[in-house]
Write a structure and sequence with these properties.
365 residues; Rossmann fold; 16% strand; 12 helices; elongated; 7-stranded parallel β-sheet; alpha/beta; 2 domains
């Protein structure tokens, strides 16, 4: 099949998805506003945005010509971002058959309210698709609020390479217990909740343990000031942003369990990756996390914003190596069952074949 993915090529999610698709042996094209290099993928720099009415119309006509020349068996809008305006959404009129996949912030309003323009764009784009799916069921239900009552969105879990994201080969021998956090340091990730809960957990845990923070962002100075006020000292190790998938997998293998204290989440890819590495996950039961993490089996989830409950979860796992090991084994099994890239590719290829008339109906997650 010839598949044309339409997405922001600068996104690591887009790059990973296109690379995984190319590994299946099909002809993959990416229409992106940014020039990127992805092994096995033909990238078409496709302008979607321009200032001013006339330049915008010329740009959109050029984008439509590029997409039409690719002439794929299926178009796949991977995330709504590339066509998320009143003008660019009109590009979708000429795309058939069209599949749409949703990630998270593309379908979740950024606040409590949403502008009529944003809602109109989402409703229009979803109405043009013959198939709509999301990376977690929570987002699929969100998508349905923009769709006709008789239509449903499917769930195709985002997958990871389980040969890369895997547990450590041998147990560590340094005796430290480490809680890991791997998210950008901004409000939605909840790093302020993390530090408050960690400080409280150290007061009630029978053994000392440490927090390793992998990430950077606008809250970094504020968080370091908070850690100083809480007198956390050397119990927190600030690693900065970790670059590269292999290095991030190594980070997860260097800690004993992880934290997801987010105020808002879609699928929570850090939780997926941590479970693939055989780690229990602690965090808030927000967004799609209760679907990603099996509470009581592969981790401990508490009500969003409840710092005391989160601290108790941290202390419980830090002080119980048997519980960490048991949940870690279950986490790896869950990742193998739900979150493998092979399963994701099988489901998406089945969808492509079905909508292009090249095969049977897709196998749903």
């Amino acid at each position: 099949m010839r598949i044309c993915v339409i997405s922001e090529g600068s996104s690591i999610h887009t790059q990973r998805y296109c690379r995984d698709l190319a590994s299946t042996g099909h002809e993959i094209h990416l229409a992106s506003p940014q020039a990127v290099s992805i092994h096995g993928v033909t990238v078409h720099v496709t302008p979607f945005y321009a200032p001013g009415v006339r330049p915008r119309l010329r740009t959109l006509r050029r984008a439509r010509r590029i997409l039409e020349r690719i002439a794929p068996d299926v178009y796949h809008l991977y995330g709504l971002f590339a066509l998320a305006s009143l003008s660019t959404m009109l590009v979708a009129r000429s795309l058939s058959p069209l599949v749409i996949s949703l990630w998270g912030t593309d379908i979740m309003p950024p606040g409590e309210t949403e502008t009529w323009k944003s809602r109109a764009v989402k409703s229009y784009l979803l109405s043009r698709a013959v198939e709509v799916n999301a990376v977690v069921g929570f987002l699929a239900r969100k998508a349905e609020t923009y769709m006709a009552p008789d239509r449903k969105a499917d769930t195709v879990y985002e997958g990871v390479d389980l040969s890369l994201w895997r547990p450590r080969d041998e147990p560590r021998t340094d005796g430290e217990v480490r809680l890991g956090f791997a998210k950008a340091l901004h409000s939605l990730s909840g790093p302020d909740f993390l530090l408050s809960a960690f400080a409280r957990a150290r007061e009630i845990c029978p053994i000392p343990f440490f927090l390793w923070v992998a990430g950077d962002g606008p809250m970094e100075k504020e968080l370091k000031d908070q850690a100083a006020r809480l007198q956390l000292g050397d119990s927190v190790r600030w690693l900065g942003k970790i670059h590269g998938t292999a290095a991030m997998a190594d980070f997860f293998r260097s800690v004993d369990f992880t934290a997801m204290p987010s105020r808002r989440e879609g699928i929570g890819m850090s939780a997926v990756e941590a479970q693939a590495c055989g780690l229990a996950v602690t965090g808030f039961a927000t967004g799609g996390l209760p679907e990603t993490v099996a509470h009581g089996e592969t981790g401990l989830l508490v009500p969003t914003g409840d710092v005391e409950a989160l601290a108790l979860a941290f202390a419980r796992l830090a002080g119980d190596s048997d519980l960490r090991a048991r949940m870690g084994r279950a986490a790896r099994v869950r990742a193998q069952a739900l979150f493998s890239k092979d399963r994701q590719m099988e489901n998406m290829l089945a969808i492509y074949r079905a909508v292009s008339g090249r095969g049977a109906a897709p196998c749903r997650s």
